[in-house]
Amino acid sequence: MWERGMASIVAPKGSIARAARVLDVLSLAPDGADLTEIVARSNFTKTTTFRVLASLRDVNYVYQDPASRVYRLGSKLAELARNAERIDVGALAERGMKRLAEMSEDTVFLSVPEGASAICVSRTVGAFPIRTLTLDKGDRRPLGVGAGSLALFCSLPEEQRTAMCRVNQNWLADYGVTEDDLAIAYNFFQSNGYALNKGGVVSGMSAIAVPVVTASGRLVAALAIGAINERMEQARIDDILLPGLRREARRLADRLTAFEKEQSS
């Protein structure tokens, strides 16, 4: 496990990055790790490692077993993880994505906005033999590239869309996407209520997507269905795929809205 998870790691700089690195090391050691092991796996000096561990112990993110002297992830970190799970959009969308994958037999993607990027946070694969695995969990693209990312882009106000185009100019060019392309896609989105990527990322593969917006107007995510072009004929989009996407997007938005209300009460 150690070798598989840690082989390509380079020691990061900055106190937060160092703390995150030590936590990463401990996350791959379910039985704990002693100081020597953590030093070896983090690529830090013994002094740096000890100082980082001491800081993490102070906030209960890490504790040390008094008998074995090994370090383990602490209770406070577990509490944070439980809280994060409550607002994990991917976790909230899991059942809906499974329903979409079973209904369509195609691949379902969930993307969230982060700055000028869209990140795929979840993917569910349907039963159809030819699968569109154009995105994997954790993949990042500029806003506007791919159906889910395009749905997020098109849901932004004009000022933000203009800023995204400026910031992502070179990144968009890597995908052969221009501002004119995005303007055409935006007009399509406005007219039809969904984003369409017709083979723009992978030849022969298409996808459609809709945004997930809470009652407060917060843009949270985009749900997308991808398939080979032959399965993306307009009648199938209109009669099967789009109604399913919109239904699950509403359900997810309702759950997120309920969470927002719970947090504000």
UniProtKB/TrEMBL annotation:
Please indicate if the UniProt record lists Cell inner membrane as a keyword.
Answer: no
| Gene3D superfamilies (UniProt xref) | 3.30.450.40, Winged helix-like DNA-binding domain superfamily/Winged helix DNA-binding domain
- This chain's source organism reads Sneathiella chungangensis
Which Pfam families does this one have? HTH_IclR (PF09339), IclR_C (PF01614)
The record, for InterPro entries, names:
GAF-like_dom_sf (IPR029016), HTH_MetabolicPath_Reg (IPR050707), Tscrpt_reg_IclR_C (IPR014757), Tscrpt_reg_IclR_N (IPR005471), WH-like_DNA-bd_sf (IPR036388), WH_DNA-bd_sf (IPR036390)
Q: Which intervals hold domain HTH iclR-type? A: 13-75
Q: Which residues form the IclR-ED domain?
A: 69-258
Report the protein name in the record: Helix-turn-helix domain-containing protein
Organism lineage reads as:
Bacteria, Pseudomonadati, Pseudomonadota, Alphaproteobacteria, Sneathiellales
